[in-house]
Amino acid sequence: MCEKSKCRRRTEDLCSCPPVKNREDNLFALLEHMAVNMTDIRWELDYTDLNRPEKRRLCRVGTCRVCGGVLCHEMDASDHLAGDGFLAAAYRHLYQVHHARGRDMTDAEFRRRFVEMFHDQDRPVVRAWLERPENSDVRYMYRRGSDAAGAGEPILEVPIYTIVRTGTDSDRGFFPGPQTEGSFLSRRRARAELNKLIEAEKDELDDRYDSMESDEDHWEAFQDGYAAALFTRLEIVSSNLHLPSCVEMPEARSRRQNTPCCGASGAPRCEDIRDTRAPLDAAYKEYRRMIAEELGAMDCILKTRMNCCMFTNTRSDVLGCLNAIRGNKRLSGFEVWAGIRLFKEFLDFCRDYDIVSGYDGETVDVLFNGLKEKEEDEDA
Questions:
Q1: In this structure, are residues 33 and 21 in contact, taking their beta carbons and an 8 Å threshold?
Q2: Under the phi-then-psi rule, with left for phi > 0, alpha for psi from -120 to 50, and beta for the rest, what region is 259?
C-alpha cells in the first residue's frame, strides 16, 4: 500500500477499511485484504524520460470491494535502469505479480495494458520493443540496458543452453522451485547431458508416473489425469549472453597478430590480457542474473499452474478419501489421526460460515477409529 504522505491521491479517496488503517500493526491482514478485495485493477506509471535512470512510481491500483475506496500497491520501478533494461524489468515484474495471484489475462491484453501505461509519444517505441523476437515470450525477456549498449557499442550474442528441472508431487507435499542442472555453449552437449539425466531420472520414478512426453529438448513424466500435481520435467532453455564485441580472448588476439601470447617482440602485453577480465566478469555476472530471472519466471508459471488446479486436484483427492471410508478401507494410525483432523477442520469451517449449525465430533472419532480397529483386529 502506498504511503499516504507519498501517494498523489487524496486521503479521503483511499480505502478506509480496518486492515488499511492498522497496516503498521498487522501487515499480513493488509496483504490479505488487498489480495481478496482489490477489484478493477489497473497499472499506473509516473515517469518523465524512458532513456535515463530516474525516480519513478509504478503502482497497481484498484477499488476496494468493501468500502469502494482506492487501493494502491506501489512496486519496484527499477529506478536505476533505462531504455530496454527498464522496459524488460517493468514487464517481468508486472507479469510475475499479476500471474502469481492466479488472475487470467491473455498475452495480447497484458501487452496492450502494458503499452497504455506509457506516454502517448513513447507508445510506438514500447510497441516496437515488444515486437522484437527476443521479447515475444516473458521467459526469454531480460534486461538489456548495459553500459556498452547505451554507448552504442556493438554487442556480441553468445547462445547459452541451460538444463532446468521442475516438478511437483502434491501427494507428498513436495513443491520445489526450478533448479539448473548445467549450462552449455553447445546445444549438442546440452542434449547429450539431458539424455543422461533422463535415464537417471527414469530409474528413480515409481509406478504413479504412468505417462511420458519428450522431444530433443525436453522430457516430462507425469500421472495421466493428474499432471498438474504429479510431474517431473527436464528441459533445455536457450538464452543469449550479451558481450561487448570488443572482448577478445588472448588466444584469438595472438592468432590474429601471428605472435605468441606473451614474451616475444610485438606480443600482446600482459596488461592487455588482464584488460579483458573486467568485461568478461561483467558478462558472467549478467549471465548469472539472467538465469536467476529465468528461474524466477518459471517458478511463477509453476505456481500459477498449481493455483489454477488447486480445487480440481483436491476434489479428486477428497473423493478418493470418501470412497476409502465407504469401502471400509483399513487405515494406519497416522492416517486415522490425519482423517479426524481433516474432517473436523472442514466441519469447523462450515460451522463458522453458517453452512451447518453444528456437528458431533465424537461421531467423527468413532468413524475413523472404527477403521483403525478393524485393521488391528485382523492383524491380530
A1: no
A2: beta
